[in-house]
Protein: Transcriptional regulator
Organism: Pedobacter yonginense
Amino acid sequence: MICIITGDIIGSRKIKDSWLLSLKTALKVVSGENNKWEIYRGDSFQVEVQPENAIKVAAYLKACVRANKLADVRMGIGIGTVKNKRKKLSESSGDVFVNSGSAFDSLKQAKVNLAVKTDFQDFDEEINVLIRLALIAMDSWGVVAAEMVKLALENENIVQSELAIRSGRTQSSVSEALKRAHYSEIMEMDKLYRKKLNLKISK
């Protein structure tokens, strides 16, 4: 099983394209050694990641994009199997691509910016409720909050005082920004998502 995240930049024509470099850099980071990612039609993208990392990756991509003023991103997370694996993601096929496309297509109608689709309906229902709650915080990240979430996800094993040094901010402003972003609650959701997904996959 793999995970494909399909996304696009909201209102990309109305904003400066400073988000493009941020997005490219972020996709390189999250795809890791497999380097499976594509940007197409100017503002749409797909990336392959490990299924258990999907929530954390989505939070990271959102933080990277929202660190550019006025920019935001919509993403559909699909988990499933691959039928034909080609060099280009857009030429590959299988359930994972159907699920990712279906999750992405459901966003506008549901008026949300993130959703997950797997072959486990009860899992999807539970996780999508959690995602909608998390989006109350994530959709209102300002530039500073987004930058701090990005930095915290890139440096998960270091303490806030170290994050403060790296960001050139005071520890209290780092702490305040992460609190405003509801970072610890989003990481709790990530933990629960991983636990529930592992239970489903191991059955």
Q: What stands out?
A: Residues 2-139 form a domain with the Alpha-Beta Plaits fold (CATH 3.30.70.270). The mean pLDDT is 93. The two ends are 13 Å apart (CA to CA). Residues 126 and 193 are 9 Å apart (CA to CA).
